[in-house]
């Protein structure tokens, strides 16, 4: 086993490589771990290995110094060689793999990275010389806490005192960013800034179980009814959509408008990074357990998430990383099929969401 000399480590900035190269939501739940690494050693050079899809938003992360692109499992021999060369040239002191796969473990080992830490899962752990047993399949903690524990394990191996765990927002924006995003949308869509702006993402990101568009329509009508009963300001509903989800969002928007609700669709943004920043304008973000929900959570915007009840996808495991007071979560009740989203009591959910909206500070300044 290669031992890192403390003297050698002190001669230059520590170079750390963090890998979370799967989906957008998974990557957003890595930001608390990245914040932890920077809090322990602000001088450390933190690189991330991510797919091209999440790279634009990774470049906005304040805890990341360098973004490396992972060509993926289908890159072939040439792609693997090119990535291996990049990793060797990076002269990394440590590799932290938040989601372990044999390919990444093999690359870290072949690149000669001295300290390689990952969860002790599957045979991929053979490529790592530090392993932490987590048993994530039990879903006993939020995913971002599992990630934080791995980051703390790496810091312990590097000899850094553990800092206090960082608190939301894990994506702190420069002053004025939220106000700028609200002004931009108000100008584009003619929105009334005095109303609550409730963003709804009816898509499912290709994997997350979500409410159907009809259920979202029912939920929105029920929330509106409760706000009207309480003489609260009527909200504006902004429908968002990922690639290929535009027709679903448009159909729901048209239905709401036909029923007399204030609804519109978020205009196309210039890329994932631009879309992500636009979520700072939300007073509340409602969605299934998708990437956009976790972007909103990372921004510490209030969220209402709809989750299946299966063990690998519970509201606890995929909890958003915003402040506790900012999040609501709903899932099928005990005894229902774990993926039967029709079993969720939308009346009760609407009651909680309407109450949540009334307690929010509307048009608050950016933190």
Description:
The longest helix is centred in the middle third of the chain and has 17 residues, at 213-229. α10 links the parallel β8 and β9 (263-265). This protein has 2 domains: 6-158, Rossmann fold; 177-359, Rossmann fold (3-Layer(aba) Sandwich), CATH 3.40.50. Helix content is 37%, strand content 14%. It is built from 13 helices and 12 strands. The chain has helices at 6-10, 24-28, 31-40, 55-58, 76-90, 102-110, 143-158, 177-189, 213-229, 246-258, 272-278, 291-298, 346-359, and strands at 15-19, 45-50, 66-69, 94-97, 115-119, 130-132, 197-201, 236-239, 263-265, 284-288, 303-306, 327-330. The protein is α/β, with parallel strands linked by helices.
């Amino acid at each position: 086993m290669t031992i890192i000399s403390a003297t050698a480590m002190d001669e230059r900035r520590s170079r750390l490589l963090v890998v979370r190269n799967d989906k957008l939501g998974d990557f957003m739940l890595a930001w608390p771990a990245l914040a932890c690494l920077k809090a322990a050693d602000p001088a450390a050079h933190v690189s991330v290995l991510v797919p091209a899809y999440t790279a634009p938003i990774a470049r906005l992360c304040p805890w990341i110094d360098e973004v490396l692109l992972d060509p993926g499992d289908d890159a072939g021999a040439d792609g693997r060689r090119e990535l291996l060369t990049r990793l060797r040239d990076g002269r990394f002191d440590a590799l932290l793999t938040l989601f372990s796969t044999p390919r990444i473990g093999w690359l870290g080992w072949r690149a000669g990275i001295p300290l390689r830490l990952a969860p002790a899962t599957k045979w991929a752990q053979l490529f790592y010389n530090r392993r932490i047993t987590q048993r994530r399949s039990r879903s006993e903690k939020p995913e971002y806490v599992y990630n934080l524990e791995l980051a703390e394990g790496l810091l312990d191996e590097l000899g850094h005192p553990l800092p206090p765990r960082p608190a939301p927002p894990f994506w702190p924006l420069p002053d004025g960013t939220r106000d700028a995003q609200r002004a931009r949308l108000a100008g584009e869509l003619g929105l009334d800034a005095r109303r609550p702006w409730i963003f709804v993402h009816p898509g499912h990101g290709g994997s997350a179980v979500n409410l159907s568009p009809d259920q979202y329509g029912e939920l929105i009508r029920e929330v509106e009814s409760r706000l009207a009963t309480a003489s609260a300001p009527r909200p504006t509903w902004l429908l968002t959509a990922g690639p290929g989800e535009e027709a679903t969002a448009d159909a729901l928007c048209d239905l709401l408008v036909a029923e007399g609700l204030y609804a519109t669709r978020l205009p196309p943004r210039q890329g994932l990074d631009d879309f992500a920043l636009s979520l700072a304008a939300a007073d509340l973000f409602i969605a299934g357990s998708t990437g956009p929900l976790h972007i909103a959570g990372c921004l510490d915007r209030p969220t209402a998430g709809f989750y299946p009840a299966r063990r690998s996808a519970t509201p606890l495991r995929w909890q958003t990383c915003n402040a506790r007071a900012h999040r609501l979560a709903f899932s099928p009740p005990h005894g229902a099929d774990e993926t039967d989203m029709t079993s969720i009591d939308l009346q009760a959910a609407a009651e909680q969401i309407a109450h949540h909206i009334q307690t929010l500070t509307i048009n608050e300044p950016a933190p």
